[in-house]
Design goal:
Distance between the termini: 51 Å
Largest sheet: 2 strands, antiparallel
Number of helices: 11
Protein name: Endonuclease-reverse transcriptase
Shape: globular
């Protein structure tokens, strides 16, 4: 165990953890396997972190994006380099209007930058997308989450992801106030409470993929 890279997280009492020569410190959030792990606003913090990394990747390729090369080459670089950086691990995100808006704001900003357009130019987002023809990040992330949800629901080898999917903490008591949005809430809104059974039929699950993506995309097309 590398004690310099080992930390502890808990949602309960912080009990001291000591090794022979080192104390394991507690942290409120930590990056593990490329994703930010925390007990509070995990998706929001992770999305903000992914956006920062995507901006870094974008500006590292500014010789391409700010040049006069054909737009289809810029779009290819965007879809193959920046988009994967932005959406890494999006299958585990809990989508909300704020999360979707943050992704959309980032992508619209990069599109304007590629075209050399300022916000004061008052160009419609629809017209900008027709010029860039890049992959819609929100729609693509929804598709990835939907496919991964179906894959997890169909797993039959008792892997940990499947067990967590069906785990319900019946002994726990929800705190007062509006319940937090859960990972599966937007899936059940489209496929119903028995969505894990529906996912067993691949063709039926595939047909609902577009409906799931369009649940969020129309929020963006109104601008």
């Amino acid at each position: 165990m590398n004690t310099e890279k080992t930390f502890a997280m808990t949602n309960s009492d912080k009990i001291p953890i000591n090794t022979e020569s080192h104390t394991i410190h507690y942290v409120d959030e930590y990056v593990y396997l490329g994703q930010n792990i925390s007990f509070v606003d995990q998706t929001a913090r992770e999305v903000e972190r992914r956006i920062k990394k995507a901006w870094g990747k974008y500006w590292s390729l500014k010789e391409i994006f700010k040049s006069h090369i054909p737009m289809h080459l810029k779009a290819k670089a965007m879809d193959s380099v920046v988009l994967p950086t932005l959406l890494y691990g999006c299958q585990t995100w809990t989508f909300t209007k704020d999360i979707v808006q943050k992704i959309n704001v980032f992508q619209r900003a990069t599109e304007r930058s590629m075209l050399g357009i300022k916000r004061r130019d008052r160009k419609r987002n629809k017209d900008i997308r027709e010029k860039t023809k890049i992959i819609d990040a929100v729609e693509f992330s929804c598709q990835l989450k939907w496919r991964w949800a179906g894959h997890t629901a169909r797993a039959g080898d008792n892997r940990w992801s499947e067990r967590i999917l069906h785990w319900h903490p019946y002994e726990a008591v929800r705190p007062r106030g509006r319940p937090r949005r859960r990972w599966r809430d937007d899936i059940t809104a489209v496929a119903g409470a028995t969505w894990t059974r529906l996912a067993q039929e691949r063709s039926s699950w595939k047909r609902l993929e577009e409906a799931f993506a369009q649940k969020w995309v129309p929020l963006l097309n109104n601008n």
